[in-house]
Amino acid sequence: MYKEKRKENKNQVLERLKMSLSKTDTDLDQEKYLREATRHFYGIEKPLKYGPSVETLNDLIQALYAEFSTNYVNIEMVNHLMLSYKSNPKEWQKFAKFDRYKYTRNLVDTGNGKFNLMILCWGEGHGSTIHDHSDSHCFMKMLKGELREIRYAMPTTTTTGTAAEGNTSNTTSMESDLERQESLDEIGQRTMSLNDVAYINDNLGLHRVENTSHSDTAVSLHLYCPPFDSCSVFEKNSGQRVKCTMTFWSKHGQKVTYDK
């Protein structure tokens, strides 16, 4: 019964997405299919009634591998899996690496190149820049503490300027071309608590995430699909946009050293 219900629901999702594609694109690769899905998917707030339960972090990883084993990924099921998993510090502490001065990105699993699962660690007062997600899906689940997410409307490019040096967390380089827009419009914010899940893609806008506490740290689990290693960051008041390369503080629990 479970398999039948799951198959029916998955087929409904696939049909909605396939209808938006041209007839010549019926044999899409997975990456193209996922990027197309960002135009139609807005996230789900509660686990699916027909979805499986996920009891451990390893169960979550294995279930994700199963979902990404075909070209037509059920993105609702991916969302369900992130919602279903309940934080257990004993399972993720080995990946949680903090830095005194900035939040850290710690790779948990590369998903055979089809998704990235990582843990971000936020010290007291740490926050991200305003950024996009390179036309990918972004799921963020709270494992510890609280984070505030502030969302902004995706800006429209007006003129082109010259890049200036900036301080962007977890970046190693910036491209020389800088796009300039009007100031960014805030469209909403929320506070995320233990086991909450937020979803965003570029169709929904930009966001900034911050730990507003000055006494407690926070830890979040992130899933990006397709995976990406660069994104655009934005300055709120001027709307300046610059491309940056993203790095990991650690991979699979081990500190990463980059050549300078």
Automatic annotation (TrEMBL):
Keyword entries, A-Z: Dioxygenase, Iron, Metal-binding, Oxidoreductase, Thioether bond
GO MF annotation, one: cysteine dioxygenase activity
List GO BP terms, alphabetically.
Answer: L-cysteine catabolic process; taurine biosynthetic process
Crosslink 3'-(S-cysteinyl)-tyrosine (Cys-Tyr) sits at which residues?
C138-Y224
Top EC class, one word: oxidoreductase
The record, for InterPro entries, names: CDO_1, RmlC-like_jellyroll, RmlC_Cupin_sf
Keyword Lipid biosynthesis attributed: no
| Keyword hit for tRNA processing | no
Region (Disordered) residue spans: 157-176
**Note describing how the cofactor binds:** Binds 1 Fe cation per subunit.
Cofactor(s) the record lists: Fe cation
Pathway stated in the Swiss-Prot or TrEMBL entry: Organosulfur biosynthesis; taurine biosynthesis; hypotaurine from L-cysteine: step 1/2
- Which reaction(s) does the protein catalyse, per the Swiss-Prot or TrEMBL entry? L-cysteine + O2 = 3-sulfino-L-alanine + H(+)
The residues that the entry says bind Fe cation are H131, H133, H207
Q: What EC designation does it have? A: 1.13.11.20
Sequence similarity: Belongs to the cysteine dioxygenase family.
Full protein name: Cysteine dioxygenase
Q: Which gene name belongs to this protein?
A: LOC119642226
